[in-house]
Amino acid sequence: MPLFRAPRTVVPESADPDAVSPSAPFRAWKQLGLVVLCGAWVLLGLFGRDPWKTDDAINFAVAWEMVQRQDFLIPHVAQEPALTVAPLVPWLAAATLTWLSPPLGAPDAGRVAVGILLALLLVFTGMAGRELSGRSMRWVPILIVVGTVGLFERSHHLSEELGLTVAVALALYAIALALRRPAIGGALLGVAGGAGFLSAGCLGLAWILAPALILPAFGAPWRTRAYAATLAVGVAIALAIAGAWPWALYARSPALLDALSAAERLSAWVPFLPGSAPVEPRWLAKNLLWLAWPALPLVLWMLWIRGRGFNGGLREPGIIVPGAYALVLLASLALMPDPRVIQTMPIAAPLAILAAREVDSLKRGHSAALDWFGILTFGLAAIVLWAFWIDAYVNGMSLRVAMLLRDSETGYGTSFSLRAILAALSLTLLWVVLVRPARRSNRRAILNWAAGMTLIWGLIATIWMPYLNTRRTYEAVAQGIALAAPAGSCIERRGVGAAQRAAFYYFSGIVTVPDASPRAADCAALLVQYGRLADGTPPLPGYAIAWEGGRRGDENERFVLYRKGP
Question: Fewer CB in 10 Å around end: N or C, the chain?
């Protein structure tokens, strides 16, 4: 009987010599193709549109107002301090806005920051995958991130969550690097922690540092003096970066630090505190599968293989490091009062690295099912998008299509832009060439899925962008309010959200006064934001309706401007 038992292994059914393997023939061309695919995913949807509700409008308006005021310390929304908005993403957007507008318009220049953050997300995810799983696996987690359904559209908005998503990816790389370079890994962990705080406050700092602090419980590699030094350096740098902004606020005015402390409500993300909303753990269970697709089923396959002791089991750093981050983030989301879909974005990188570990051992039938499901789904979706666009261009949007798109107005005629048409045709043809019948493999299935997601987002961001922008922008609403507002008087507001106030101020310079403010009594007009008005606009005693309206096709959000008088 042997003294030692060799580790059990599952022989990979497919390593992809034709797609993403760095040792395959024509390696340079394939690498270039992957870079082009990732570049298209990053750039599509950044240009040619207005700021959209909710996070995109708020963060752009904060960045734009920073540039207008030349005050980059205090975030403002429509001339009111807004310390609930973390500053990192607006700072980056303000920088790109300053450098690139002109020649770009202000919204497009500001969203260049989104492109920078998305590129960093892919780079850090690939570097972490390479450090944890080897050089041959560096592209697989990147493609899984590109194909993640939960990042579709939301990742192309200016949002605090995008900054936190990049910080989580950087933290994964830092912890992975710390196993052989403790000092550099600790420094990068500290930068990630500071970026997490400046992106999402105390929640961001906790999501970065908590998984790193619990790693010693998972194995000997993290119970060493070297890792203790990594943690010490990381925590020190993270606290120094995180404390710099509050200290600067206090230096300007102690009241600003008090306002920041009030904005950092623990009850917003810690359950069972006074003021916390009820916990809905079923929300995550109902939404995680589609938000984390295709990573989640691949993670479950990895757990099935390695949980039975194959391929090194579950105690490798390549499993434990991203697993710790995934567990902490998922537990926090499950217990978070009133979570939002966009808050699930930071789980993309750790799940992608976990999912990539056993892609090659996936049964050929399973990978073929994923491949053909993607080809059929994205092919049908592309046909529908092209058919609807052609029909709307020739005949105007029909009632049936409008109902399918949840649009309350019919007859919309799509516009013809040669540049958008050529871009959409190029994306479609390239996708057809990529998914042509060829040697199938597990990694090829991942590549085809990422390409399909890029195709659909590309069609929406090109030929459908003018229509989508008319439904998402507040420009027409802001202009209508500005024309109907009394000259030389303030406007009282009631129930108007931060995103709407930010958009109104950017488009028309509209500044409103809260109805609880003493100044409200001197205002000659009142702006009210309603939901769906099934019974018509409600009258208010002492006011006359001066204007009412909303975004095109959106009956769930109505704005009414009342003027004082009979």
Answer: N
Is a pLDDT exceeding 50 seen at residue 492? yes
Q: Backbone dihedral region of 275: left (phi > 0), alpha (psi from -120 to 50 degrees) or beta? A: left
The two structure tokens encoding residue 211:
């998984």
Task: Compute the distance between CA of residue 429 and CA of residue 418 in angstroms, rounded to an integer.
Answer: 16
For residue 376, give the 3-state DSSP assignment: helix
Nearest CA among 197, 187, 280, 199 for reference residue 235: 187
In this predicted structure, the answer to whether residue 232 has a pLDDT above a threshold of 90 is yes
Buried (b) or exposed (e) across 337-349, using 16+ Cβ within 10 A? bebeebbbbbbbb
Backbone dihedral angles phi then psi of residue 563, each to the nearest 5 degrees:
-115, 140
Residue matched to tokens 């500053």:
87
138: nearest Cα among 150, 151, 124, 149: 124
d(C-alpha 496, C-alpha 476), whole Å: 16
In whole angstroms, give the CA distance from residue 204 to residue 164: 6
Token representation of residue 237: 């740098």
pLDDT of the residue at 4: 37
Assess whether pLDDT exceeds 50 at residue 79: yes
> Is residue 279 classed as helix, strand or coil in its secondary structure?
strand
- Of 354, 301, 288, nearest to 326 by C-alpha is 354
Give me the mean pLDDT over the 205-221 stretch: 95
Q: How far is it, in rounded angstroms, from Cα 255 to Cα 202?
A: 19
3-state secondary structure of 157: coil
The secondary structure of residue 103, as a DSSP letter, is T
**What's the pLDDT tens digit per position in 509-546?**
999 999 988 898 899 999 999 998 878 889 899 899 99
DSSP 465-531: HHHHHHHH--HHHHHHHHHHSPTTS-EEEES--HHHHHHHHHHH---EEETTSGGGGG-SEEEEEES
Q: Which residues of 184-204 are buried (b: 16+ CB within 10 A; e: fewer)?
A: ebbbbbbbbbbbbbbbbbbbb
User: Would you place residue 24 in the very low, low, confident or very high pLDDT band (cuts 50, 70, 90)?
Assistant: low
Quick one: tokens of 183? 């000092």
Residues 6+ apart with CB under 8 A from 169: 120, 121, 124, 125, 128, 349
219 C-beta neighbours (distance < 10 Å), count? 12
**pLDDT tens for residues 387-433?**
999 988 988 888 888 888 777 677 788 888 899 999 999 999 999 98
> Nearest 5 degrees, angle CA 520-CA 525-CA 528?
85
The H-or-E segment that residue 77 falls in is strand 76-77
pLDDT at 22: 47
Q: How many angstroms separate the CA atoms of 192 and 207, rounded?
A: 10
Does residue 154 contact residue 345 with C-beta atoms inside 8 Å? yes
Secondary structure of 206-241 in HEC code, one letter for each residue? HHHHHHHHHHHHHCHHHCCHHHHHHHHHHHHHHHHH
